Amino acid sequence: MKAQSHRFKANSQQALRDADLQAALGRAKSGFVDKRAKAIDALPEFEALRERGRQVRAHSLAYLDVYLERFSAQVEHSGGRVHWASDADEARRHIVDICQRQQARLVIKSKTMVGEEIAINEALEEAAIEVVETDLGEYIIQLAKEPPSHIIAPAVHKTRDQISSLFDRVHHQRQGQPTRAVPDLVDEARQVLRKKFRRADVGITGANFLIAEEGSALIVTNEGNADLCMSLPRVHIVLTSIDKLVPTLEDASTLVRLLGRSATGQPMTTYTTLVTGARRANDTAGPEEFHVVLLDNGRSQMLDGPFREMLHCIRCGACLNHCPVYSAIGGHAYGWVYPGPMGSVLTPHFIGLDKSKDLPHACTLNGRCEAVCPVKIPLPKLLRRLRAASFEQGLTQPVERSAVGLWGKLAQRPVAYRAATAGAHRILRVIQRLDWQRPPFLGAWTAHRSLPHASRETFVSTWHRQREKTHER
Fold first, then answer.
1. Burial zone of 38 (CB within 10 Å; 0-12 exposed, 13-18 middle, 19+ buried)
2. 4Fe-4S ferredoxin-type domain spans which residues (predicted)?
3. Dihedral sign, CA of 352, 356, 360, 363?
């Protein structure tokens, strides 16, 4: 897989110049947004459901230690085994060890973002084990040797022309064939993957939620590939993170109702599957062994800090779909597994703020992400906290630090502040009268947009005038 660069600004500029990417993003954007809006309009109690979902996530995290112990005990009772992984290295070792003990030659996977987080495909390939993605989008980007660009639509950045060319090159060793219709591409992938399903020794799936009272994993897909990954091979591994725990099946059903509507605009996804343990004596299908690998990877630290609410996330992707920044540059620009607003909060915690210092600033703070989040995560507030942390750690540019310091000094001196803003206001009006398209020191702004029109007066002047009118009444 191609390594991703953490240079967000350079990545963004490249994305804006990529015509194919811009065409793909343009086609995808309205579909997600419009379908979600229709699904929510059809459910009058959606806001009450959101509040209930927020309460479920908050309660689950408050008693996470209790529910993890209960879940583990129930998995063991059902004939499975739980493997605890404090970090990505430990999670990879658990999975590779399981596969090697089984002398596995082929592993099939359904989509799991935690798998991307720990780079499990690369670990299995280094152990000489073939691994095949079975979600169509993940299969496409695996062939292209690219990371996913969206958490629910991994290949959203690909056009149909690109996918046709990719299939022709990989499946048929030919190039230059005409672009094919979507159903033909789907059928072709299905024919290839069907052979992999039949030969697989181990199946790896993620889990949307883990249910403590049952020791069950709940998995939702629209293709049914996860059901085949968990039922056909002789070993099933659930790879997920500790924050996916909920107490009861009823709690999980609340979140499932939120997930489908927020992600794809569906009342429920096509396949919603519960898996509990290995095959029993009277079962006609299912794995002989059932394993759950539970990843921490910094989540326990987040539990005790001001970013705890980020662990409420149910990975629906709504914040990405409604984000003007993500919609303009796609997911690869963010440089790691989790893109968009949720990724801008999560990534600094997983790989370090020093490696992702630009991400908290990749936001207009318009608040749409918080407004559409099904569990009410205050993403703008969390991003502002990361910006403050970046400043405190000295990770911002010297020019930016000097500008903020100067603004801070001015803000403490009302007379000087009013004089400075009035002066800046006059300069901006002069620039507009002269129709100066590229004024000095503003090239980063004017390269892609026009300067905003100056108001007739400054904010302070407007505020004083409005206050005087209020007093006159």
1. exposed
2. 304-334
3. negative
Structure tokens at 371: 């407004």
Q: Is the domain covering 8-158+201-300 a CATH 1.10.8.420 domain? A: no
Taking only the tens place, the pLDDT of each residue in 18-56 is 999 999 998 887 789 999 999 999 999 999 999 999 999
CA-based angle 55:299:274, to the nearest 5? 60
Sign of the Cα torsion 372, 326, 401, 423 reads negative
Distance (Å, rounded) from C-alpha 460 to C-alpha 417?
Answer: 10
Q: Is residue 420 classed as helix, strand or coil in its secondary structure?
A: helix
Nearby residues of 49 by Cβ (< 8 Å), 6 or more positions away:
43, 254, 257, 258
Asked whether 201 and 234 are in contact (CB, 8 A), the reply is yes
pLDDT(242) > 90: yes
Confidence of residue 473 (pLDDT cuts 50, 70, 90): low
Domain with CATH 3.40.50.10420 in the chain: 8-158+201-300
Q: What is the pTM of this model?
A: 0.90
Kindly give the pairing relationship between strand 216-221 and strand 209-211: antiparallel
Q: Residue 59 has which token pair?
A: 């309660």
Residues near 119 by Cβ (< 8 Å), separated by ≥ 6? 88, 92
